[in-house]
Design brief:
With 182 residues, this protein is α+β, with helices and mostly antiparallel strands. The protein is built from three helices and eleven strands; from the N terminus they run H-H-E-E-E-E-H-E-E-E-E-E-E-E. It holds the Pfam family DUF4833.
Length: 182
């Protein structure tokens, strides 16, 4: 091998090493769900392709169900892509929510996810469509999706490396993003 060939190989190796990060090694592409009229947002995890959906639970007269304003369920892309309910444990410990509603609210409700109580989410109508409004990177936004990077070396109780929150500005639809390191 010539000295020039060795130098080129070393340069290519250095470029590869610099572009590689351990987080990328574990961040598998996950499919986006097919959108539906009542979809609020969804959660993707690095663990597998399954996603957790959050849809507005709307009555026949177009109002939010006052008892359960959000329908939460799995789409099991890692299996056959089927819909599946959350287990009681999954609801209580992670993906379920607590509702914070006043008696005067009939067209909106505020929820907080059981696993991430710091992010209040206001489920309401915006331009005739149900949306999940929250604060992303310091500004009001329509929440669209959340990505959770789970540390692959964590044991029985998953350790979260980071959370990415994606949304859009409610008026001009520009993307809004925030990364949270717990």
């Amino acid at each position: 091998m010539t000295l020039k060939t060795i130098a080129i190989l070393m340069l290519l190796t250095l470029c590869f090493v610099q572009s590689y990060s351990p987080a990328q090694a574990h961040k598998k592409p996950t499919p986006a769900p097919l959108s539906n009229h009542h979809q609020l947002f969804y959660i993707q995890r690095s663990k597998d392709a399954n996603i957790i959906m959050y849809d507005a639970n709307v009555t026949s007269d177009g109002r939010f169900d006052t008892e359960k304003p959000v329908d939460v369920y799995w789409i099991r892309y890692a299996d056959k892509g089927q819909r599946e309910d959350l287990s009681a444990f999954q609801w209580q410990m992670a993906y379920g929510y607590k509702q914070h509603r006043t008696a005067s609210e009939t067209d909106a409700s505020t929820i907080s996810l059981n696993a991430f109580k710091k992010l209040p989410i206001r489920v309401t109508y915006h331009h005739g469509h149900p949306v999940a409004m929250t604060i992303i990177n310091g500004q009001s936004a329509c929440l669209e999706r959340v990505f959770v990077q789970v540390n692959p070396r964590s044991g029985l109780i998953p350790k979260i490396d980071y959370i990415e929150i994606y949304g859009t500005h409610p008026e001009n639809k520009t993307p809004v993003y925030e990364r949270i390191n717990p």
